[in-house]
Amino acid sequence: MTGRVSELLAQWRVTPFEHDGVSHDVYYRGDGPGVILVPELPGATPEVIALGERLVAAGFRVALPSVIGTPGRPVSGGYIAGSALRMCVSREFAAFARRADRPIARYLRALARQLHAECGGPGVGVIGMCFSGGFALAAAADDSVLAPVVSQPAMPPPVGAGRSATGLSVIEEAAVSRRAADGLCALGLRFTQDRSVPAERFAAFERLLGEGWRAFEIDSSPGNADGIPTNAHSVLTDASAEVPGHPTYRANELLVDFLRERLTV
Questions:
Q1: How far apart are CA 229 and CA 193, in angstroms?
Q2: Which of 210, 229, 211, 209 is nearest to 219 (CA)?
Q3: What pTM did the predictor assign?
Q4: Are 152 and 235 in contact (CB under 8 A)?
Q5: In this predicted model, what pLDDT tens digit does every residue of 33-61 receive, in sequence order?
Q6: What is the mean pLDDT of the chain?
Q7: Three-class secondary structure of residue 113 per DSSP
Q8: DSSP code of 221?
Q9: Which Pfam families match (predicted)?
């Protein structure tokens, strides 16, 4: 395991970042506008690191905070279950049901401010995926974040009223709504049949952001032309994300285009 992690992250610089009692290692690589890449469950897997490498190659300085899991560890059922359990009992990620501000959201806003100070330019991007999807928009409550990317936002659980919940605190929603009126844009990505990311949730984001909401939804209905399974979930780290012509390849292209548009002077 150690050799595997070292191989994947050998070109990345790692340093801890602490804010308000929360501390995580953050892996940095690249030059250019700053982008925070928040891992999906179960953590900074090889697929997440590969996404980071693609962003570095596209001309961005990527900050990859290891907020959960072991960087470089491959996906497995047990690893996903263990990471999910740790997330559920962690104070950092709690308070979805109460719509309260979470320590992890404050941490990411502080990291965004530091990355912006280091990189300069108009602002930074934040990419959230799966459990961290909504955190990208929560980070946009801070003015340093100009390009939030909300990919398959699976929290809070899509049960009852949770199907149309944004996962933001009341204060975060007010801040994002105010910023949207001033031109904030967010990119949303999902598979159409993903039960953990219902259409009602994307509709809620659209109500919040208005014309600032840009959604790219990939057809995963039975018999779709691209053969995408109905249980497809991870858009940007999909196994076909580097296959030209595949919808997830197009999603990665849209991601880069969006970040360049918003972060390049």
A1: 9
A2: 229
A3: 0.94
A4: yes
A5: 999 999 998 889 999 999 999 999 999 99
A6: 92
A7: helix
A8: S
A9: DLH
**Whether pLDDT at 63 is above 80:** yes
Collapsing DSSP to helix, strand or coil, 245 comes out as: coil
Characterise 189 by phi-psi region: left (phi > 0), alpha (psi -120 to 50), beta (else): beta
Contacts (Cβ under 8 Å, ≥6 apart) of 208: 166, 168, 173, 176, 177, 180
Is residue 230 exposed (0-12), middle (13-18) or buried (19+ Cβ within 10 Å)?
middle
pLDDT tens-digit series, residues 152-206: 999 888 888 889 899 899 999 999 999 999 999 999 999 999 999 999 999 999 9
Distance CA 194, CA 22 (A): 32
Q: Identify the structural domains of the chain with CATH numbers, from first to last.
A: 2-263 (3.40.50.1820)
Closest to 147 in 3D by CA, of 114, 125, 122: 125
- What is d(CA 86, CA 78) in angstroms, rounded to the nearest whole number? 12
Closest Cα partner for 152 from 183, 168, 128, 173? 128
Strand, coil or helix: 256: helix
Report yes or no: 171 and 137 within 8 Å, Cβ to Cβ.
no
115: tokens are 């990355």
